[in-house]
Write a sequence for this structure.
């Protein structure tokens, strides 16, 4: 604890040279290790933060063009509107324990093709599933071997306004009159956190990808604008 | 302003009073022993290595995953129940569904725990420090319209599928300490992942953040062959996170 000590002299005392020097010697020692004990609460302001973004780092992927990415895949594929610019953020950093990676993604679903929105051959409870499509944020990391992945979350939407199980059977396209209204030109959006709970220095966070899939490969999901924002919260 | 000046200067040829020596020194020492503030410390001086590492005082994993992570300048607080994580199914299977014609629900804002007891621990609770709370709730839910057989011509009588209940709606609200701070407005039938971002100033106080849902449905007419019933209300996942940015 770098606190400086003083000597109290009373009237009539004859200070020695060493006693007079003692507070200054103490200050010289303590000043080499000034810490929170020396400072008032709430002393810091935003102007005191130095270079290197000590608290947060920001990463982003933005595709704001109009090229459509289409998929009928029933397993997740990374959105890639232009074919050469996949929706991903390259992270490549080693987090300290309990750092947080905060993620937000959004985009625009355009003129979808909803061919099958209900299937009565499926088990009860699943018959409305063909109406669904979903997104995922996939984190790639490395603990010293090969790259591994973990899903940070999945989020779903429907091609049409029609409800799921329990409605009248139809496999007709998303006709507003006959089923539900097809929902095109609708934004999608979601956010989540990923806390790193392992030991400091072990894991490298490699990248985050924005992916999409459909339940039924008769339907086509189309996306143009899309983006990912990642905030590395360190301190 | 944490700056000090000599109170009792010692002049040439004066007798030195012991009290004055102590008094002057004590002022400077008191300043260094806990009185330093933003006026004393250089700007642009705080680098990453001078800040303490984050800690995680609370964490639970069960029907709801919750944690709170404290950092020098901010805290992150998180609560989630999801089909692909805590619910253990897949993205197509809801965590729960409400039969709007038979189950209990309210015409006002419903807490999720009132619709499904697994959501008991969902509300995010933490002790905030003075500053701002910036956060977001993300809910994956469905309340679609109905489709059934209706008579479209009289002679001869022909039937065809028709959508009904296109005006049903759902509205989500985000509550901080039981005060509504953000709402979606009415969302018409669909499955949708809805975000409710929010930002509020806060003091040093306990905080509880919750999402609640208002549902509107009614029996629709026009089917001689099918029950004119509502479609179920479903929830697939709910996530609430909040960042407390200290003053």
């Amino acid at each position: 604890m770098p606190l400086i000590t003083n000597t109290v002299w009373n009237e009539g005392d004859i200070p020695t040279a060493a006693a007079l020097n003692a507070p200054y010697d103490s200050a010289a020692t303590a000043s080499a290790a000034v810490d929170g004990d020396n400072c008032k609460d709430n002393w810091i302001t935003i102007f005191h933060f130095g270079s290197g973004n000590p608290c947060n780092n920001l990463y982003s992927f933005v595709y704001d063009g109009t090229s459509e990415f289409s998929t009928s895949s029933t397993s997740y594929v990374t959105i890639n509107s232009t074919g050469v610019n996949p929706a991903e953020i390259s992270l490549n950093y080693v987090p300290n324990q309990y750092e947080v990676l905060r993620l937000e993604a959004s985009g625009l679903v355009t003129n979808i093709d909803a061919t099958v929105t209900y299937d009565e051959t499926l088990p009860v409870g699943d018959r409305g599933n063909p109406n669904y499509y979903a997104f995922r944020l996939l984190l790639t990391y490395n603990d010293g071997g090969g790259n591994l992945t973990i899903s940070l979350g999945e989020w779903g939407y429907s091609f049409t306004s029609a409800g799921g199980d329990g409605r009248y059977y139809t496999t007709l396209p998303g006709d507003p009159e006959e089923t539900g209204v097809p929902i095109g030109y609708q934004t999608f959006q979601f956010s989540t956190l990923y806390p790193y709970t392992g030991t400091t220095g072990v894991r490298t966070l490699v990248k985050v990808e924005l992916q999409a899939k459909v339940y039924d490969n008769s339907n086509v999901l189309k996306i143009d604008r899309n983006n990912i924002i990642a905030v590395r919260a360190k301190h | 302003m944490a700056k000090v000046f000599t109170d009792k200067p010692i002049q040439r040829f004066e007798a030195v009073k012991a009290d004055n020596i102590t008094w002057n020194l004590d002022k400077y020492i008191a300043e260094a022993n806990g009185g330093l503030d933003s006026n004393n410390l250089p700007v642009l001086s705080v680098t990453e290595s001078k800040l303490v590492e984050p800690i995680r005082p609370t964490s639970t994993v069960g029907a709801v995953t919750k944690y709170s992570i404290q950092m020098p300048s901010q805290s992150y607080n998180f609560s989630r129940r999801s089909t692909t994580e805590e619910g253990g199914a897949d993205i197509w299977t809801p965590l729960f569904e409400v039969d709007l014609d038979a189950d209990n629900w309210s015409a006002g804002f419903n807490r999720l725990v009132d619709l499904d007891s697994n959501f008991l621990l969902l509300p995010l609770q933490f002790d905030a420090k003075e500053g701002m709370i910036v956060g977001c709730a993300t809910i994956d839910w469905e309340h679609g319209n109905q489709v059934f057989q209706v008579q479209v011509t009289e002679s001869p009588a022909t039937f065809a599928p028709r959508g009904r209940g296109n005006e049903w709606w759902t509205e989500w609200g985000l509550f901080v300490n039981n005060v509504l701070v953000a709402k979606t407005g009415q969302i018409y039938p669909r499955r949708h992942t809805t975000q409710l971002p929010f930002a509020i100033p806060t003091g040093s106080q306990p905080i509880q953040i919750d999402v609640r849902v208002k549902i509107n449905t009614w029996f629709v007419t026009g089917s001689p062959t099918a029950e004119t019933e509502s479609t179920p209300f479903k929830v697939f996942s709910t996530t609430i996170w909040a960042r407390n940015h200290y003053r």
In short: The longest strand of chain B covers residues 233-246. Residues 1-45 of chain B form one domain. Chain B has two helices and 14 strands.
